[in-house]
Amino acid sequence: MQRLAMDLRVLSRELSLYLEHQVQKPQLVTGGESFSRFLQDHCPVVTETYYPTVWCWESRGQTLLRPFITSKPPVQYRNELIKTADGGQILLDWFDNDNSKSYMDASTRPTILLLPGLTGTSKESYILHMIHLSEELGYRCVVFNNRGMAGENLLTPRTYCCANTEDLETVIHHVHSLYPSAPFLAAGVSMGGMLLLNYLGKIGPKTPLKAAATFSVGWNIFACSESLEKPLNWLLFNYYLTTCLQSSVNKHRHMFVKLIDMDHVMKAKSIREFDKRFTSVMFGYQTNDDYYTDASPYHRLKSVGIPVLCLNSVDDVFSPSHAIPIETAKQNPNVALVLTSYGGHIGFLEGIWPRQSTYMNRVFKQFVQAMIEHGHELSNM
């Protein structure tokens, strides 16, 4: 046993030395010197070297293990169902933070809108950690659960996709109308970030949001699909996510049977096949390629009109590095890309036993705090 412990220490030391030579500081890509200086002054984590957990540094390991390793801080939600123009409903989960000592006046308490990933809800560990960090800062949070994903019934034969921003626009308008005097920010993870970027690209500066952050976004869905269809990635990720999507729509099967061949949908073996048979049909696209083109946020990045920070790992198999729009980001002074060497997809695990915090969490906390407390400096730079 003593020999095993010694071997593990040696292995850990060797891995640490290896990573010290391999890991580099994040690449910070901004469209303007002002945003770059602002982040270096008020969000220094984006310029610090990120060291992944030494026994779990590879992309797939980071991605697979994060949900099992990271803790789930307890959060007591207040639920709200809001109606949509087409007769549907959206479930919002609120964390009001009424015990906030920094912002005791609820009308001016900063509000953070959180958007989970493809099959995620307000119960995801990364969402719970963002709420926990926001609680420390005194902020209020509200989680946007996509239609039919958090246990509520579908009232119309419609789900969601990252190209259609109508539900997100409804939620943003609703939240802002409740607290028009409160600073209002948003953060989206994976597909939630893609939806958020597509919304920002469509609406430009005419949004009540003060700033936004995205994490592990898939910039070009064609490239994402090709990567996830490689044999190992299909086995580890693609097939499982496909079955999750099938399960989510099969719960509401009775709503779709007159519009979509659900038996054909349930035979899909990949996300691309699911989208071809279900998502693109549901939202009226002529072809699945048309849907993927419209849903890919890279081509809307140039139109984003508020400060946005986008964290991606270049080893993320869900979002290949060659598809990250570095040159486009350089053309928009509102955009900052933070690109790490490692981190996987929504991983960013760090430390020997990374249960409580990740690099992603630290970026989130520093960025939202910087924008709320010092955001006015950007307009003066």
Automatic annotation (TrEMBL):
Keywords: Hydrolase, Lipid metabolism, Membrane, Phospholipid metabolism, Serine esterase, Signal-anchor, Transmembrane, Transmembrane helix
Compartments where found: Membrane
EC number: 3.1.1.32, 3.1.1.4
GO cellular component terms, A-Z: membrane
Principal EC category: hydrolase
Family classification: Belongs to the AB hydrolase superfamily. AB hydrolase 4 family.
GO biological process terms, semicolon-separated: medium-chain fatty acid biosynthetic process; medium-chain fatty acid catabolic process; phosphatidylcholine metabolic process
Source species of the chain: Rousettus aegyptiacus (Egyptian fruit bat)
Physiological role: Phospholipase that may play a role in phospholipids remodeling. May selectively cleave myristate (C14)-containing phosphatidylcholines through its predominant phospholipase 1 activity, cleaving preferentially acyl groups in sn1 position. In parallel, may have a minor phospholipase 2 activity acting on acyl groups in position sn2. In addition to (C14)-containing phosphatidylcholines, may also act on other medium-chain-containing and oxidatively truncated phospholipids.
UniProt topology in membrane: Single-pass type II membrane protein
Pfam families found in the cross-reference section: Abhydrolase_1 (PF00561)
Residues at the catalytic site: 190, 316, 345
Protein's name according to its UniProt entry: Phospholipase ABHD3
GO molecular function, a single term: phospholipase A1 activity
PANTHER family on file: ABHYDROLASE DOMAIN-CONTAINING PROTEIN (PTHR10794), PHOSPHOLIPASE ABHD3 (PTHR10794:SF50)
Top-rank taxon, per record: Eukaryota
Domain AB hydrolase-1 intervals: 110-351
Catalytic activity: 1-hexadecanoyl-2-(5-oxopentanoyl)-sn-glycero-3-phosphocholine + H2O = 5-oxopentanoate + 1-hexadecanoyl-sn-glycero-3-phosphocholine + H(+); 1-hexadecanoyl-2-glutaroyl-sn-glycero-3-phosphocholine + H2O = glutarate + 1-hexadecanoyl-sn-glycero-3-phosphocholine + H(+); 1-octadecanoyl-2-hexanoyl-sn-glycero-3-phosphocholine + H2O = hexanoate + 1-octadecanoyl-sn-glycero-3-phosphocholine + H(+); 1-tetradecanoyl-2-(4Z,7Z,10Z,13Z,16Z,19Z-docosahexaenoyl)-sn-glycero-3-phosphocholine + H2O = 2-(4Z,7Z,10Z,13Z,16Z,19Z-docosahexaenoyl)-sn-glycero-3-phosphocholine + tetradecanoate + H(+)
InterPro entries attached to this UniProt entry: AB_hydrolase_1, AB_hydrolase_4_CS, AB_hydrolase_4_sf, AB_hydrolase_fold, ABHD4
